[in-house]
Amino acid sequence: MKKEILARLVVLVLVSGMGLSALVFRIGDNSGIVEVHAAMPEKGGWLTDSIEAQVGEPLVLSLVSDDVVHSFALGQSDFEPVDVLPGVPTEITLTFDEPGPYTFYCTRWCGADHWRMRGTITVTGDEPFSKDLPDPPLYLQLGIDIDDPHENHDLVLDEQPSALRGSVLGLTTPSEFLTQAYYRSHSPHQVWDELRKVPSTSELSESQIWDVVAWVWAQNTNSTKLAEGEALYQRDCAACHGVDGDGEGIFGAEEISGDGTPHEAGFDGHTIEAPTSFQDAGQMLTASPALLQGKIIRGGMGTGMPSWGLIYTEEQTWNLVDYLWTFQFQKSQE
Ligand code: HEC
Ligand SMILES: [Cu+2]
User: Fold this and answer.
1) pTM, to two decimals
2) Which residues line ligand 1 (CB under 6 A)?
3) Under CATH, which architecture does the 3-124 domain have?
4) Bigger pLDDT: 93 or 111?
5) Where in the chain is the domain with CATH 1.10.760.10?
6) pLDDT tens digits for 287-327?
7) How far apart, in whole angstroms, are the C-alpha atoms of residue 248 and residue 238?
8) Angle at CA 134, nearest 5°, toward 105 and 144?
9) What topology does CATH give the domain 136-334?
């Protein structure tokens, strides 16, 4: 994967928001500086959205917004997003150690089509691109068709399963149920079905088995991963899927364009589906982590669900998936 490469990415924010430096920059010798304008996607997004750079050579970008405050973030890296202010250039210097395409994007919700604010920095050097290709995502390895409807609306639980209760009940659970490979490749409903067949759970009630299912999830994550998943979720997903995962985010229930006028389709004419409610048990308990990760990586392709494969590291996509289960399962007694 790209993470080793990106760990070595050198990033430097030179100038930010200073009138004087902006002036110096404008009248000074700006050869080699690439000026990048940011505007809401309806008004053009990044101009330019296609930048070229050389391995090992500093790339100086001068970022300025033509409308509201945007931000500049670099995918699959730990580069801290930089605000892009209206009328005031911010200069940043990026130096890349490895050739390849790098995605940059905006993290500020400037309008319903905000997530379309993406561009590419193509870095060339002596070595060819990606010597070792990353493994295909798990859903492809498992042959899961992520477009196949998986929901089952008869699946209604009286109470949210609790990992804490499950931890007591699950002590005799065969250990293969607790492995990461098992957790990621099975929907909670499949886990439930298979647990039901195990002799050691024969004394448990239906809802107690759900508690063990929640425990299987909790065994495969931890509070650091959940906190990272939550931070990404609130930044990149909540505007559509809702802060509480109910599918009713500010840009989800009613699509609005940047100037505030409602529109039912994306600005290029796609019809948009309602964002999934992660609180819906019939929707979620029938999806495996691999399926959810696949949707995140690939996106809905025309449904309104963006693709995030070029933005997140693999680890970040798993942390998001782990976090999505907090809308179904309780981890501890809170
Ligand atoms: C611009 C609005 C929008 C944003 C932003 C968005 N989504 Fe979605 N998402 C949708 C829509 C609409 C659907 C339903 C259509 C579909 O499944 O393709 C959906 C579906 C999904 C599904 C599929 C669930 C299933 O059962 O198949 C997952 C998982 C998901 N989103 C996760 C995320 C995550 C994680 C983020 C943030 C990184 C995110 N979404 C950001 C609109 C959005
Ligand atoms: Cu934006």
Assistant:
1) 0.87
2) 115, 236-237, 239-241, 251, 272-273, 275-276, 283, 287, 292, 295-296, 300, 303-306, 308, 320
3) Sandwich (2.60)
4) 93
5) 136-334
6) 999 999 999 999 998 888 999 999 999 999 999 999 999 99
7) 9
8) 90
9) Cytochrome Bc1 Complex; Chain D, domain 2 (1.10.760)
